[in-house]
């Protein structure tokens, strides 16, 4: 191992800001307690430990939110929007008019991370992030509360992502621009990035317009370890061992990490597909 | 609450984990007034943080994300994380998750305490060096902890963490931690104590318990869950809001026109929205025509409706279950126990507690129950009848039982001397209030009086269950909007119920509350629901300290809900040691537990 490419064991402590280090280390250790060697997950304790926040139709820092639940499927989406300029309209969710008839307002469908197992749309960390996304991008964000593993394996998360995309596309109150359509981007971190990718691929196949993908350290893998996986194993909160657990919990039983949900670069599988993903 | 972030560093926005600047006051999880650390926008690294111990405020970034860590304690918490990781490395892999799931966790927001309890759990031999623990360093907390230590007679707080002899887990006693779990409030208290050390606990709580001061502390959150937002449903909501606005502005002609429109549109709706619209429109009509409905004094009807509500949905069951759990834990090891129930009604809460006490390892305690209720209208003695039934149950399960029913028009009429209390060394007391406290807010001074009477009872524990909503704001339109959203969610959750008769009765039960919130004022408006944050402020100011409900209660409550057919939208949530039951993401009721925070006046010996 050349000295220059070797990652110092204490590097994360030096590089990462203290409060971030504390936050992520706490998650890491708590998650270690929740994963059982037999592949089951301590869901009750996970929900107890999870810090959640409620939606709030009264704007805070220029952003308000509300939750929508589909009665038949139980799928929940948390919608974040910029606050209306008219203060008299604060506290009410406008569901009859489009976002704008002149400007384009992007709608970002966001899939939270958590390795398909942890977190929710109402997790404090993701609620905070989505709010910032609204402010920075002047967009509407729809955070999808997809079903998680190991209780719900592949393809449940992708199906929920697809349902959310169809739902968003069909909301007249999410339309914008002179062309009166919903301008959709898909985004996600970690497993959310994986979901965003697969939903985008299906959208391309079924000719539903998605204007772009925003993938934040998306979660992919394969039977063969990559160089960076080997080099960074355990160095920045994540280990190969825990990744393997999460794949075993998400992929259908008996499948390995070359399953197309996980290994999107497996060339043989890819040769037989033709997609128009931008 | 708006927060300026002039020192937001633009680079940090691209890093999803560096959540700097995302700060805003989270109503239920943040402490709200932490000082922004002056570090020109860049989050501190470990090395930088070690050198800066002066800051007494909370780390704002962690606070926004639901974790309360003092800025000065950051390095200490980081150390504990490393320690825990080391200890976890030594524990066997299957042993780890086994231990984790069997141990009881409390208040995960208090990161420091949680870490310490986990470390002790996994390595009982590890001791904490108090000098290295920065807990005692900040000025505010050391005052509070020294008061706690000097009070040796009432070792109530350490019992929370005391090892249960039957479980075999060695959770270390960490003195003073519970008092420090809300340092913002404690520092206010400690300042009060510092300036006037001779004040007794009763008088020190007087300045902040007026009703008026709590109006200001209400946070502005309006959680909304829309289920199947159909277009007509949305229009109905807008109409209701417009009508309420007209009422607010005393424009009664406009309001009248709107209320009729609502009536027409409502009947074309289906499901929960139809009923909610009809009940709210009805309540608005009462108000518009100034026919303020008399408070139905027929409590037997309310009791019957409540029984159906109990059967239809899990809210009351959750309330009873979680309160009983806290009471059970508080009564551990006690030989004689006394429960004073402010919400006796049909006594539905007590069979389960009595059965749990009967099954206690080591045998049941002697169980005494004092049930308080309003006078009955017919000549029947409701309270006594309930007592008889419970006595019969007690006999079958071999629990020594004593009962007394106590009739009172209002809880404020009570005095501790009426209850024939026995010395605390002889008999331990629990006070229980399920959906009763909020009614006291209708009469100025009543709440304060009742809380001081509760303190006189010297309870081991006080269990409080209340609706999680602010229906007591000063502005009618706000109350209307809040309650519209609250009851819409509640009615939604009833939609999936199986028995239609129970469901109808439950809806009537809730409709009476809606009518009271919307159409009544002054003494008659008794459904003055307030949020956990508001109750917390009130109870802490009155001299109570929180007792945390743990992961065991959470887990059992979750399992209880899973058994409940008719909707898997129910969710249990942990919030700073309290448990909330909600429909999807909207909490609807909260169970909290309290003990009397002992202020020992410092006496100058000289």
UniProtKB/TrEMBL annotation, chain A:
UniProt family annotation: Belongs to the 'GDXG' lipolytic enzyme family.
Catalytic residue positions: 190
Protein name: Alpha/beta hydrolase fold-3 domain-containing protein
InterPro entries: AB_hydrolase_3, AB_hydrolase_fold, Carboxylest/Gibb_receptor, Lipase_GDXG_HIS_AS, Lipase_GDXG_put_SER_AS
Residue ranges occupied by any Alpha/beta hydrolase fold-3 domain in the UniProt entry: 108-268
Pfam families: Abhydrolase_3
Key word Hydrolase present: yes
Keyword check for Acetylation: no
Record keywords, A-Z: Hydrolase
Automatic annotation (TrEMBL), chain B:
Signal peptide segment: none
Short sequence motif named VHIID, residue ranges: 337-341
PROSITE patterns named in the record: GRAS
Extent of Basic and acidic residues compositional bias: 186-195
Domain of life: Eukaryota
Every Transcriptional factor DELLA N-terminal domain range: 59-125
One Pfam family recorded for the sequence: DELLA
Region listing for SAW, in residue ranges: 519-595
Subcellular location: Nucleus
VHIID: region residues: 306-371
Start and end residues of each stretch annotated as Disordered: 1-43, 180-216
Keywords from the UniProt entry: Gibberellin signaling pathway, Nucleus, Transcription, Transcription regulation, Ubl conjugation
Presence of the UniProt keyword Nucleus in the record: yes
InterPro entries referenced in this protein's UniProt entry, alphabetically: DELLA_N_sf, TF_DELLA_N, TF_GRAS
Biased composition (Low complexity): 25-41, 200-213
Free-text function comment from the UniProt entry: Transcriptional regulator that acts as a repressor of the gibberellin (GA) signaling pathway. Probably acts by participating in large multiprotein complexes that repress transcription of GA-inducible genes.
UniProt free text on domains: The DELLA motif is required for its GA-induced degradation.
PANTHER family referenced in this protein's UniProt entry, alphabetically: OSJNBA0084A10.13 PROTEIN-RELATED (PTHR31636)
Family: Belongs to the GRAS family. DELLA subfamily.
The protein's name in its UniProt record: DELLA protein
Organism (species): Salix suchowensis
Native organism taxonomy: Eukaryota, Viridiplantae, Streptophyta, Embryophyta, Tracheophyta
